[in-house]
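Please decode residue identities from the backbone states below.
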């Protein structure tokens, strides 16, 4: 009976974690370039007891272990905005931005220029080019960004937006502000990534799928809670009957 309670609690902890992941996905349905995450769980079989006095062989107890979350790298829908500073990333590449904590990576291409003429993200982080931040003069016109990330105006080329890929993108960690961090060194994207100017990649979260997952989690959590409650009642009844016999 005690094992059954432990199994139920481990299931509830896993379901709570999945609920947090779903809630975060739903909160970012409208976030440019956001990539959804999915929970990953693993079965853990408790080793059998070693006592030889049992009349029947001991049965393994199966628990649930939270194995983290997987990043859904599917391409989000591309929406035309007409803004020459907006770029949508196609392929497996990420844009590089400079933050106070060093280089970070994003798929959000909603760029703008700050008061100094530096190309920045909507959060004010400088966009990294092959040679560092990209500067555009206040009087320059005819801004265009090519498929390879080259930024140019009527006065010439001003830099090229840096695109990178990772050998294991699943190791990327969310760091807030729609940014990812990585302990591994990125590689130049090459043909693995291109950009489309005047457009933005929208979130790849599918609201209908997430709502279905949410209902399944709530239903399962309620069911597990009912089992735990009944087991608790059963234990209470057993204790009272044993007391009566004594």
């Amino acid at each position: 009976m005690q094992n059954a309670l432990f199994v139920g609690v481990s299931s509830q902890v896993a379901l709570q974690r999945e609920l947090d992941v779903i809630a975060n996905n739903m909160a970012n349905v409208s976030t440019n370039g956001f990539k959804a995450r999915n929970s990953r769980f693993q079965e853990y079989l408790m080793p059998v007891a070693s006592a030889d006095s049992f009349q029947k062989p001991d049965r393994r107890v199966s628990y649930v272990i939270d194995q983290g979350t997987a990043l859904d790298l599917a391409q989000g829908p591309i929406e035309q905005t007409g803004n020459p500073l907006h770029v949508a990333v196609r392929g497996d590449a990420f844009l590089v931005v400079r933050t106070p904590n060093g280089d970070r990576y994003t798929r959000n291409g909603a760029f703008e220029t700050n008061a100094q003429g530096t190309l920045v993200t909507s959060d004010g982080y400088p966009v990294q080019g092959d040679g560092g931040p990209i500067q555009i003069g206040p009087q320059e016109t005819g801004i265009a960004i090519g498929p390879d990330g080259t930024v140019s105006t009527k006065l010439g080329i001003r830099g090229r937006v840096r695109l990178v890929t990772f050998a294991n993108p699943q190791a990327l960690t969310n760091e807030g502000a729609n940014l990812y961090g990585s302990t591994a060194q990125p590689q130049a994207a090459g043909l693995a990534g291109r950009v489309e100017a005047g457009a933005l990649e929208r979130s790849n979260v599918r609201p209908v799928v997430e709502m279905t997952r949410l209902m399944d989690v709530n239903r399962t959590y309620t069911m597990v809670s009912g089992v735990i409650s009944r087991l608790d009642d059963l234990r209470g009844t057993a204790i009272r009957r044993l007391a009566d016999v004594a």
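Observation: The chain has two helices and 19 strands.
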